[in-house]
Design the sequence.
């Protein structure tokens, strides 16, 4: 049995894993940078180690340091999500050094990390696949030929990475060449790999996930589905379980085929299969995430399963503690991701110090967060400051509980996306469950979230800066070389704001 766990991550997810470890009487090891030395996950753990090489070093991409600390402390490593969670080389180095990696084996991570390879493997395992390329595109001429064959609209996607980077919707041949250059440029700068591939674009699609959990002995189950269609810039912002869109028949077929496919490839640990579902309930495999998902909490609330606990048990060599028929699906759960962004000003980043923080409490409310009054929302890391998850006996009850929780959650010192979530929960299409991935662009009333520049000169300056950024990025996409344009808007904003403050 694992006796100590090092989380190779920070913030909310590190704290969430530590909490399960504490329940299991497992000692915890935190890692941190100089910027994060006062972070809550550092204070919560029994041991903590600084990984910064210099005071200015803000990187958490330190695989060798994690392995060294794990060997020094006798800890297993849980990667959380993001950072090194789907880095096959890191998982392989852990295996080579005799450090337990709490996740699937390196070979599976590597295969599923290359999306074209994942499509090929899952197609052979019996999953339906969206028409597209099996290999990365060689050049624009191949892109034209493939697009003409499968028909527009098509989606250009980065071979490596995720988070919506490198993705471009192309509706006609006239858009293809510029979109192709832009997609390759963004992919190269974001992931160090500019390879892209093509998928047929499904109009008005739903983004549905299936959570699976397997052990090393061939036992594998699913934990239901999640609706993840409310997205902004190809990133999820609200998730719920179960999906209000798919039928019982589709749900049964999707979850059962997911289990069969994962058994065929010998998958173990927690994993998520992502599907695109069209208006006629046809579903197609998109990709597999070989890690813990941000939105895993809605699944936990609807099943009573602690996914982190089971990941640790599986990594320890234990079999799954239950069979499929023992999993009871009950009620509905909704999760809202709270970001330090200003929805009234085009979701402009809002770094700074949280001065006041009042959190929602009471029945059926779960808050996963590592922020507190006095916490500095840094430009160096993801601006998500909390996840609120609410459960109810049915979907209407879950929505009511979330509405109450959002009303109680108060943060002063930085702007947050709480008003945005409140507006979504009042939207008729959302209430009826009649939404897809185009919701924010087509069904959401954004009149009260428009840019307000006239009353605040600082806002006007920053808005101008952001326009300059987008213009520069667009120009770069048309360049013959690959310029450095993949920098985080969060960081870019900070640099330009500091420049503006000097005037």
Sequence:
């Amino acid at each position: 049995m694992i006796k100590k766990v090092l989380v190779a991550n920070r913030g909310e997810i590190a704290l969430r894993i530590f909490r399960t470890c504490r329940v299991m009487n497992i000692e915890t090891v935190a890692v941190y940078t100089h910027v994060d030395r006062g972070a809550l996950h550092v204070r919560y753990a029994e041991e903590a180690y600084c990984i910064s090489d210099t005071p200015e070093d803000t990187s958490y991409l330190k695989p060798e340091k994690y392995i060294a600390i794990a060997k020094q402390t006798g800890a297993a490593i849980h990667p959380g999500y993001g950072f090194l969670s789907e880095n096959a080389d890191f998982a392989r180095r852990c295996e080579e050094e005799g450090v337990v990696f709490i996740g699937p084996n390196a070979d599976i991570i590597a295969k599923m990390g290359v999306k074209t390879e994942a499509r090929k493997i899952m197609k052979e395992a019996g999953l339906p696949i969206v028409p597209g390329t099996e290999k990365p595109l060689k050049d624009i001429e191949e892109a034209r030929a493939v697009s003409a064959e499968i028909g527009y609209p098509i989606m250009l996607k980065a071979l490596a990475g995720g988070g919506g980077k490198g993705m471009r919707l192309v509706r006609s041949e006239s858009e293809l060449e510029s979109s192709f250059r832009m997609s390759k440029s963004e992919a190269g700068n974001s992931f160090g790999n500019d390879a892209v591939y093509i998928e047929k674009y499904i109009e008005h699609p739903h983004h549905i996930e299936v959570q699976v959990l397997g052990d090393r002995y061939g036992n594998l189950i699913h934990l239901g589905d999640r609706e993840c269609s409310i997205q902004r810039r190809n990133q999820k912002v609200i998730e719920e379980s179960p999906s209000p869109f798919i039928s019982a028949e589709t749900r049964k077929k999707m979850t059962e085929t997911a289990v069969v496919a994962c058994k065929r490839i010998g998958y173990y640990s927690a994993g998520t299969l992502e599907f695109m579902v069209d208006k006629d309930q046809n579903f197609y495999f998109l990709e597999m995430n070989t890690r813990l998902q941000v939105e895993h909490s809605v699944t936990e609330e609807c099943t009573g399963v602690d996914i982190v606990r089971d990941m640790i048990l599986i990594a320890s060599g234990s079999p799954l503690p239950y069979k499929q028929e023992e999993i009871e699906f009950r009620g509905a759960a909704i999760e809202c991701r709270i970001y330090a962004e200003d929805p009234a000003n085009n979701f402009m980043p809002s770094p700074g110090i949280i001065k006041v923080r009042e959190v929602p409490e009471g029945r059926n409310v779960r808050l996963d967060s590592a922020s507190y009054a006095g916490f500095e929302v840094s430009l160096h890391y993801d601006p998500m400051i909390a996840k609120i998850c609410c459960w109810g006996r049915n979907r209407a009850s879950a929505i009511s509980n979330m509405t109450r929780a959002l009303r109680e959650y108060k943060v002063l010192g930085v702007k947050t996306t709480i008003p945005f979530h409140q507006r979504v929960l009042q939207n008729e299409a959302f209430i009826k469950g009649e939404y897809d991935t185009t919701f924010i662009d087509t069904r959401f009333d954004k009149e009260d979230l428009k840019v307000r520049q006239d009353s605040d000169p600082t806002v006007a300056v920053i808005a101008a800066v952001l326009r300059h950024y987008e213009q520069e990025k667009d120009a770069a996409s048309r360049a013959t070389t690959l310029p450095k344009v993949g920098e985080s808007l969060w960081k870019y904003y900070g640099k330009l704001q500091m420049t503006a403050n000097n005037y």
